[in-house]
Design brief:
The complex is a heterotetramer. Chain A is mostly helical. The chains are: A mainly alpha, B alpha/beta, C alpha/beta, D mainly alpha. At the A-B interface, loops of A face loops of B.
């Protein structure tokens, strides 16, 4: 561990490299986390199938490239396709767990996650897939810091998506309907908002965000049917830290998590990287609880 | 008679809104005190501050001379200061008898005492108290299936089961069938007289509170507006203003 | 109502007793729990295809003759879902309920670790083709036979080549990133022993968690420390991630050696980024081994490709060989008693398309070397050991700027 | 359900539990796993069903039991059974200590944050075990071979787990009859009310978790020996399988009822085994569907459904 810290001193640009790469991973987490925050906030559902939606998005892009399309087209197409998938999922199953105990939604979407994993395995095979965006990397600081173009695009896209989501929720009609429904579904219904439609749209929007994230993930990293869970749990974590209502906080938490995780992996050794992330999450929860308890409140 | 509860300059803010602004009041042992005021005047908030469910931003609450505003709900309840809720809180999935059994005072004890079965004496007491509030036939019914008024009565019985020294009641007659209200007033009085429970009652129904309370405090806009006997309050122009002015 | 419930449960119990094991005359039933789902499912599928191909071929050729009577082979499969607890439970079930007396191995060392105690306990032989961890062969299992080379040999070739190519092997600096699972950690142990032999020094020694989907922290270290040799093992995912991210982060190392790069299809999936990578493999279709059943290694590869429409990975080849070992042992044992078959297995000395197979007293195959491929112009070319080499190794790997 | 029929069912089950291993020796391993599942469901239900705390982290205690037994058996240098007994005892102590520590910290958190916090706890434990060389890190640990004759091993573990399940059941049955049981229900129904009525909710909750931890760690030590090999993520701290099944079984049978978890475990286990036998390669699809169907269409569970039916019938009759 000390050796690893010493490395930072010996090669200062390395610290930059580790942090930058972490931020770039964090951007993908943030993208998936927007969706989770949205669904959590509006439908009051903890969407455990999040990671699987990301993976499916990746497969869409993978298939497109197989058919000879340029990889970057995959981002919007994946988002679009996943929007449809999300809509269908909502109409078929998810709507049944809205308005129910949030714990029921956790379990139900967990079941969906297993189902999708398995169907992905049966239809795409368990091979590890990746798509070469063909863009190459960027170099800084004498090659010590390298940033793949595609990760940079992912980063920018994640920020753009966050900004447009914010703008959409604030100014678009559907966005306003979503916010109204989130605050008070009954009142929204009385005001003539078709909340069922709003829920479906929200869930589909979430799936679209995941689709974009997956498309970027398959270009920057790899995907296979069983790798949704890391995305799910990190989205969880981001939302737990940032809360459901604040897009900016989600971006910050996502990026922060990515950077922190990468630094932890570097310093503690990669075998403790995931342990660190989860220990951190538990610590944050406990700390927030203790702070609330001191004030005669409790964490809700 | 000794002072049981003293609220001294208690202040509570929600964001920028001051819900309780330096409120002071006292409750003497053995009396029935009333707390009135228009909607939003801070009565329920004050209950929260006293019984430990809301943090207090300023001032102090003394119960039998002991400062309690830093304590949470559990320890305060174990001192003998209890409250009921306006919207009633009972254990919905448990039967009335179970609701009563777990409300007994001995449930305050440590783990070892909890590992004993419910003693026969407690069962009898629970049964008596259920009969006292008129729910004896419902004793095996789940709490959540009772009507709102019945739940209120159950909550009251549960509170008595706990043998509190001071009981804070938040609108005990709200939602109760008007024909039953006189019976309820009678029970509150008997609880006070026979069981020796000091009461502090929030009430909207003027007829009830004027009938019941020995002394009344009136809040408006988070401040104490007036204090006195029912007659004094009835004649106080400011109180009348506060009610009519708001309406 | 309760009656209905209980009769439902009873019916379930009856069904549980399973596809009833009627003992057809003339059929030898082998049992296998393989990973059809879960993290090992791609390699589990290769394992199953390898088994199936050999069974089909052997049955086509008239089956196995045991003491004058011909028998056909049949395999009963269960899906262990890539989890050891399941694997052990299913093998117990194969033995107890399906009355299987001969077990074929699962995929991965971890599952073999879990299953070996079970077969050992029941005295049922297990011929396995995909559990290479050397620790398996230190436990004195009597009924465990492995047709493959063990983990300590996987990257030995790469280390030996690196030592040979350098003026002073003790100056070599090695970076290692191994997945935190039984197989890869065992590979690591073998690597450490070999490094010690040459006096090499480890500068990076990371364990990659199986859920990891990014290894940039490790690669950053590698970039800073500029080792002479980078060794990576983490099943298919580890190989794919390494190739992908080394290209993205422009990590330059003179030599990179991996495991599982052919089953991860790195040359096909990553094109130029995979060039120069050295891959440890149990088998290659270009090897010159031959047997009567499949013909040469390349014949096997062709047959496999015709049957399944994909290139034959070594995981399938070794699995086929495991079935051949059983067939050979049945014939020589002249009996289907597990004890006799075990005895025959210990005396195995046969040539297959997959290589020579002879077991030492611990049950591992000591007659076949590992090979090393190098990805050269998009093909997997054997470069080590010299006896089988198709081409010379390309070394050192030029920096990314010049590739 | 009257007292009498309760004891009747227990009698039948006890006879079945003792007799089945002899009648159907081929099913003995499945039976052992069934008792394990019963323990899982019962202990989970104490928190999730009785107390209203939906924990995804109970697997922590199972894993601690697995590892404690494995380490003691490896290092103590004692004969098999002595080492096993010592390992189980140590596991129980460690698990209860962990429940005290984490319970005090986590059990104040409510609702889904508690579920997520415990999930994090379970995953952290798995990852720490997977990185810690002393317990074999990612390679897991192999348990020593059972010394007895062939076939004895299965009987030993089957009956041991059966005994633990029975003790667990009877203990919980007794516990739910005390004031403590009522206190658990009170916390589930309205914790703020329970607090305000003077119940010492935190010690009650922590104690409940300790009980769950005790039984889970004992079953963990036994199960580790029965399976013979522990992997940090897939056996000991198997949150995605055992950890979730606990919840499902309790829900399937009926949360917060005495027999629900037992029934749920039996039905779930048998269903699961049938999937494995008859749906090769598709069993996870079936499992995923089963989960969705259970929680979406059947959240009241079998016992809840029976109660509803009975209420409806009585309603029709009166």
């Amino acid at each position: 561990m000390l050796d690893n810290l010493l490395l930072f001193v010996q090669f200062p640009p390395l610290a930059v490299d580790v942090v930058v790469n972490g931020l770039l991973i964090g951007a993908i987490f943030a993208l998936a986390a927007y969706g989770m925050a949205l669904v959590w906030g509006v439908l009051n559902i903890v969407n455990v199938v999040q990671g699987e939606l990301v993976v499916l998005g990746g497969y869409v892009t993978f298939l497109l490239v197989q058919w000879g399309m340029p990889p970057l087209i995959g981002v919007p197409v994946s988002a679009l396709v996943m929007f449809g998938v999300g809509w269908v999922l909502y109409r078929a199953i998810v709507f049944r767990v809205v308005d129910r105990d949030i714990f029921i939604s956790i379990l139900a979407t967990f079941g969906l996650a297993i189902l999708i994993q398995q169907l992905a395995n049966l239809s795409f095979g368990a091979d590890v897939r990746s798509v070469d965006a063909g863009l190459g990397p960027l170099h800084f600081l004498d090659g010590m810091v390298t940033v793949a173009w595609v990760k940079l695009i992912a980063f920018v896209l994640a920020l753009v998506a966050g900004a447009s989501l914010w703008f959409f929720l604030r100014h678009a009609r559907l966005g306003q309907a979503i916010r109204a429904t989130a605050q008070n579904p009954r009142a929204a219904r009385i005001l003539g908002i078709d909340t069922g439609r709003v829920y479906a749209a929200t869930y589909a929007l979430n799936a679209a965000l995941c689709g974009a994230a997956g498309s970027l993930a398959v270009m920057a990293w790899t995907i296979h049917p069983y790798m949704g869970l890391p995305y799910t749990v990190r989205s969880f974590m981001v939302v737990v830290v940032a809360g459901v209502g604040n897009v900016g906080a989600v971006v910050a938490a996502g990026l922060g998590l990515g950077a922190l995780e990468n630094v932890a992996g570097f310093v503690l050794g990669t075998e403790f990287q995931i342990a660190f992330v989860f220990a951190l999450m538990v610590t944050i929860l406990v700390w927030r609880h203790l702070r609330a308890a001191r004030r005669r409140e409790h964490l809700k | 008679m000794s002072v049981m509860l003293e609220v001294r300059e208690v202040t509570k803010r929600f964001g920028g809104v001051v819900a309780n602004d330096r409120i002071s009041l006292t409750v003497t042992q053995g009396e029935i005190a009333g707390l009135i005021g228009p909607n939003g005047s801070g009565k329920t908030t004050l209950f929260g501050c006293i019984t430990g469910t809301l943090p207090v931003d300023g001032g102090e609450v003394y119960f039998e001379g002991q400062p309690i505003s830093h304590l949470r709900a559990g320890p305060i309840a174990r001192l003998g200061l209890l409250r009921t809720w306006q919207q009633t809180r009972i254990y919905g999935e448990m039967t009335c008898a179970e609701n009563m059994a777990i409300s007994a005072r001995e449930a305050h004890g440590g783990l070892i005492s909890l590992l004993k079965p419910v003693p026969a004496a407690t069962r009898i007491r629970a049964s008596d108290l259920l009969a006292f509030v008129g729910l004896h036939e419902k004793r095996d019914e789940r709490g959540g299936r009772l009507s709102f008024g019945q739940q209120k009565l159950l909550e009251f019985a549960m509170a008595l089961m706990n043998e509190p020294k001071l009981l804070l009641l938040d609108e005990p007659t709200a939602g109760i069938n008007p024909t039953l209200i006189n019976g309820l007033i009678d029970r509150l009085r008997r609880a006070n007289a026979e069981l020796g429970v000091t009461l502090l009652v929030i009430e909207h129904n003027m007829r009830v509170i004027m009938n019941l309370a020995h002394r009344i405090t009136c809040l408006a806009h988070g401040e104490v507006l007036a204090e006195g006997t029912p007659d004094e309050i009835r004649d106080d122009a400011r109180v009348l203003d506060a009610y009519l002015g708001v309406a | 109502m309760r009656k209905g419930l209980f009769s439902g449960i009873f019916l379930g119990l009856v069904l549980l007793a399973g596809p009833v094991a009627a003992d057809d005359p003339g059929v030898i039933r082998l049992g296998a729990a393989v990973s059809l789902t879960g993290k090992y499912s791609s390699n589990g599928a290769f394992t199953r295809k390898g088994y199936d191909l050999a069974v089909e071929k052997i049955n086509e050729a008239g089956g196995v003759t045991v003491a004058g009577k011909p028998y056909l082979l049949q395999i009963i499969y269960y899906d262990d879902e890539s989890t050891p607890a399941r694997g052990a439970q299913l093998v117990e079930r194969l033995i107890q309920q399906d009355k299987v007396q001969f077990v074929l191995g699962p995929y991965s060392s971890g599952l073999t670790e879990a299953i070996a105690p079970v077969t050992e306990k029941y005295g049922v032989p297990m011929v396995e083709a995909n559990g290479a961890a050397i620790s398996l062969f230190r436990k004195n299992y009597r009924y465990l036979f492995a047709v493959l080379s063990t983990t300590d040999e996987y990257l030995r070739g790469a280390i030996d080549i690196a030592a040979r190519l350098s003026a002073d092997p003790s100056k070599l600096r090695v970076a290692m990133a191994f997945e935190n699972d039984p197989f890869s950690q065992d590979v690591r142990e073998g690597v450490l022993a070999d490094m010690k032999r040459h006096g090499m020094k480890a500068v990076v020694d990371d364990k990659l968690p199986p859920e990891l989907n990014d290894m940039s922290a490790t690669l950053s270290k590698v970039k800073a420390l500029r080792p002479d040799l980078l060794l990576i093992s983490g099943h298919d995912k580890g190989a794919s991630l390494a190739i992908r991210q080394m290209a993205d982060q422009r990590v330059n190392v003179p030599m990179l050696a991996l495991t599982h790069c052919d089953s991860a299809r790195i040359a096909e999936n990553f094109g130029p980024a995979a060039e120069y990578a050295l891959c440890a493999a149990q088998w290659a279709s270009t090897l010159t081994y031959e047997d009567d059943l499949f013909g040469s290694a390349s014949d096997y590869a062709r047959l496999y490709e015709e049957t399944y429409g994909e290139v034959a990975p070594y995981q399938a080849a070794e699995s086929s060989a495991a079935v051949q070992v059983y067939a050979d042992a049945f014939a020589r044992a002249k009996s289907l008693d597990p004890e006799d078959v075990r005895q025959a297995l210990t005396e195995t000395a046969m040539m297959t398309f997959y290589g020579r197979i002879e077991f030492d007293e611990t049950g591992k195959n000591v007659a076949k070397p590992m090979v090393l491929f190098q990805v050269q112009d998009g093909n997997y070319v054997v470069v080590y050991p010299e006896a089988f080499a198709e081409a010379k190794i390309r070394w050192p790997t030029p920096p990314w700027g010049e590739r | 359900m009257t007292k009498l029929s309760d004891w009747h069912i227990m009698g039948v089950l006890a006879i079945a539990g003792l007799g089945l291993p002899f009648l159907a020796p081929g099913l003995i391993t499945q039976l052992s796993f069934l008792w394990l599942m019963v323990i899982f469901a019962l202990t989970w239900d104490m928190l999730g069903g009785r107390m209203g705390y939906n924990s995804f982290g109970n697997i922590l205690f199972f894993g601690i039991g697995c590892y404690a037994a494995a380490v003691v058996q490896r290092d103590a240098g004692l004969p098999y059974f002595e080492a096993l007994a010592l390992g189980l005892a140590l596991g129980a102590v460690l698990a209860v200590a962990a429940a005290l520590l984490f319970g005090a910290a986590l059990l104040g958190i409510r609702g889904h944050y508690f579920a997520i916090g415990t999930l994090g706890l379970g995953i952290t434990a798995a990852e720490v075990a997977a990185g810690w060389d002393y317990v074999g890190a990612g390679s897991g640990m192999a348990l020593p071979l059972f010394p007895g004759a062939l076939g004895q091993r299965e009987f030993f573990f089957c009956f041991s787990l059966f005994a633990v399940a029975i003790v667990c059941f009877l203990f919980l049955r007794w516990l739910y009859g005390t004031r403590f049981g009522l206190a658990l229900n009170a916390i589930r129904d309205d914790q703020d009310k329970a607090d305000a009525m003077g119940l010492r909710t935190t010690p009650i909750k922590v104690f409940a978790w300790c009980i769950a931890a005790f039984f889970l760690s004992i079953s963990g030590g036994l199960a580790a020996n029965m399976i013979g090999f522990i992997d940090p993520r897939d056996v000991a701290f198997a949150g995605a399988t055992f950890g979730v099944w606990m919840v499902l079984m309790a829900i399937l049978g009926g949360k917060g009822t005495l027999w629900g978890p037992v029934l749920g475990a039996v039905v779930f286990h048998i269903t699961q085994e049938l999937f494995w036998t008859y749906l090769l390669g598709w069993q996870r699809v079936a499992l995923g569907l089963l989960i969705v169907v259970i929680v979406v269409f059947f959240p009241q569970g079998i016992m809840g459904w029976i109660a509803e039916r009975r209420a409806a019938r009585e309603g029709a009759a009166s």
